[in-house]
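Before the break, one more example. Copy the sequence into your notebook; we will annotate it together after we see the structure.
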Amino acid sequence: MKKLLRRMLERLGYRYFKIAYQPLGLDHAHDVARFLGSATDLKVVFDVGANEGQTAEYYVRAFPCAQIYSFEPVAATYKSLVERVSKWPRVRAFQLAFADSNRTAKIQPVPVSGLNSLRNELSNSCSSSCGELVTIRTLDSFCAEENINHIDLLKTDTEGFDLEVVKGAEAMLRAGQIQFILAEVTFQLDNTYHTSFFRLAEYLHRLEYHFIDLYDHDAGHFGQSTLASCNALFYCAQRDLINVPTVAFRGV
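Here is what the structure looks like once it is written out:
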């Protein structure tokens, strides 16, 4: 019966997998949960670049026992984030950006909120009327202040600023206190709107983080033949994982 169903679906252009055995690269939340044991084993998730709470909503459903910390620095977008996540007690929202140093900066918000980035930081000579002042922290300092000593999943989507976000967590990374990192990356050398996979992977490899797989592939403009951006998942090789399909990992 299973073989017949498989053949019928393939003739219609579909292929199915049993969820427990689906290939890597389809759903990062499922893969992380599988490696740790189950979705209930995730206790702390950081959503950096939360935008209006789309990912937070996804994580509420994917990780039923996790405390989710969502971060969005731009005031108008942060307001939308708070309105969206207020119904979930497990989600805490903060009007913060992250980088490799504690400071404040002015950025120029753009019409599409998902494209806001510290890459749009304005110079100090900009007049007081232009841009929006945002507070920037390092992940290390924020976690020390909040008494957070472990992050199961750090997701960062900051439109080309993700390496700086990760560098701000170097103390925790060296201590193996962050289990998984999901970051938006590009493989295009001339793409300045996303973080270079090669630079990020090189930095993380020095700290004993290994590459797992790619998710959410985006070809960019319609008809573009090359991959514009995607999300790359890394894991901390210092820590033991429960269910590791050894042939599936793509080491860097």
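Helices lie at 2-11, 28-36, 54-62, 75-85, 139-146, 162-167, 170-174, 197-206. The radius of gyration is 19 Å. Try to locate both features in your own notes.
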